[in-house]
Amino acid sequence: MAASIAGVRRLYLEPTTLDIREGSIVETPRTSWTDPFFTVDQDLFVLHYNCFAPKPFATDVEYQRGFGHKFGVERSMAQLEKRFRQLTTTATNRGILRVYLKSLLANATVEALDPTYAACVDLSERLETVLHPKLRLEIEMDGDLVANMDTIRIEVSGRSTTPFVRDVPKHLIRAVSSVVDSFLAQAAAGCPPMRHQALTYVPRTGTSREKMVLTDDVPAYDHIPLHNHFDAPVFDRMMLFAKDQDVVEHRMTLVDEYDKFQKTNKLSSDEINQIFEIEMKRYGDVLENAKNKEVAHTRTFLDQALQHDLQSIHAMHAATVANETARISAKYSAQRESLFVRIEVERLKALAMHRDSTQTTLAQLEHVMAVNLQQVDAIFGASEYLLQLMLLAQDLACKKLLNACVRYLTEPRRFQQFCTRRELTSPLLAETTLLLLLQHLPDSDAAEINTVYGAQFVYHEMLRREIHTRLISLTKALESLPNDALRDVMQYAFEKFVGEASSNPSKDVAALGELCKGYPHVLTKELQRRREFSHVKINPALLNDHLSLTEDDLLVELESSNRYCSAIGTKQRSAGEFGRWMFEVCIEAMDPIGASVAIGWEVPRSVLQWAPSEDVWRQTHEAPESPRGDMTRFGELNGYGVVFPGLTPGDDGHSFGILWQSHAGLTGDGMGVLYCNGKQYSGVPTFSSGDVVACTIDQDAVEPFVEFYLNGQLVIPVVNAGNVKKRGEVCSVVQQPLRLHSTHYALFPAATLFSSKDPIARVRFNFRGGFQYPIPGYEPYGAELLDLLEIAGESVSETGGYSALSPRSSIRSNETWGSMQSRRHSDMTRSEGRTSDITLTARSIISNNNNK
Question: Positions of the region Disordered (predicted)?
Answer without folding.
Answer: 803-852
